[in-house]
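Please, why this fold?
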Amino acid sequence: MIGGGNGVLWYLVLTALLVIPFWKILPRYGIAAPFALFAVLPVGAIILLWIIAFRDKFSDRAGV
């Protein structure tokens, strides 16, 4: 069983590469950070990107 766990390892690495940026970005758009866990699913990542892309700016935030 050489390299049997490599698929799981790669999945965990790619999952971290998706979830961590979403975890940092979502609170800036007024969305709770735990919603970043939806990025584990490909459809969830696409939905989050659409929400971020079309989210209205908040006028009550400083610097906006």
The chain has two helices and no strands. Residues 20-56 form one domain. Helices lie at 6-25, 42-53. The radius of gyration is 15 Å.
